[in-house]
Specification:
Distance between the termini: 38 Å
Strand content: under 5%
CATH superfamily of one domain: Tetracycline Repressor, domain 2
Number of helices: 9
CATH architecture of one domain: Orthogonal Bundle
CATH topology of one domain: Tetracycline Repressor, domain 2
Shape: globular
Largest sheet: none
Order of helices and strands: HHHHHHHHH
CATH class of one domain: Mainly Alpha
């Protein structure tokens, strides 16, 4: 089998596959190098260190999520868009577990300031714009939505919902409908503060 040409993109892509297979915490420069069929020092021409690889996977995951959410949300708004958004993230956590883990860390500046992060923030903001929240309240709503999704997925992944009825799907539906109701009835802000235009600063909560 022909070895792929070594570039920053191929290093990150192979590291992401390895993270999905073995777990994000199992990543090391040595393990990535072995997967690529090279010695670890060969990687330093393309990535600075392990943190750079981790940030690269975080950026890749954000780009993939932004694309998936954009496709799933297209043509929808309000409750339908909120459900499509949340379902897309939950499905991604199952399809790409290592990449999802890469999003559960304090990302470095390269990932936070990446075009991928900007795209993900923009698509998240677009989902929440339909609720006519102010700019500041969309930040609060983004954090609340991200906390619900991340917390639910984390508990589901460790089997916390396996021991009693009803099925997790019922709880997932209740949680999303509760968020939809909350965002729909969010307290109005004074006119002077009702900033509904613009995109919030990078907040990659998801």
């Amino acid at each position: 089998m022909e070895r792929p040409r070594l570039t920053t993109a191929t290093v990150i892509a192979e590291a992401a596959k390895l993270a999905d297979e073995a777990g994000f915490d199992a990543l090391s420069l040595s393990s990535v190098a072995r997967r690529l069929g090279v010695k670890a020092p060969s990687l330093y021409s393309h990535v600075r260190d392990l943190e750079a690889v981790q940030d690269g996977i975080t950026s890749l995951a954000l780009a993939e999520l932004a694309a998936r959410v954009s496709a799933d949300v297209a043509g929808r708004s309000g409750r339908a868009a909120l459900w499509a958004y949340a379902d897309a993230l939950r499905a991604y956590s199952r399809d790409s577990p290592g990449r999802w883990e890469a999003l559960q860390r304090r990302a470095g500046t390269p990932a936070v300031d990446s075009a991928a992060a900007e795209s993900f923030v923009a698509v998240t903001d677009a989902v929440l714009r339909a609720y006519r929240l102010s700019l500041v309240d969309r930040v609060h709503a983004t954090r609340l939505l991200g906390s619900m999704i991340n917390g639910f997925v984390a508990l589901e992944r460790i089997g916390s919902f396996d021991h009693r009825e009803p099925e997790p799907e019922a709880s997932w539906a209740i949680a999303l409908d509760a968020l939809d109701a909350l965002f729909t009835t969010w307290p109005a802000v004074p006119v002077d503060d009702d900033l509904t235009e613009g995109t919030p600063p990078h907040d990659t909560s998801h």
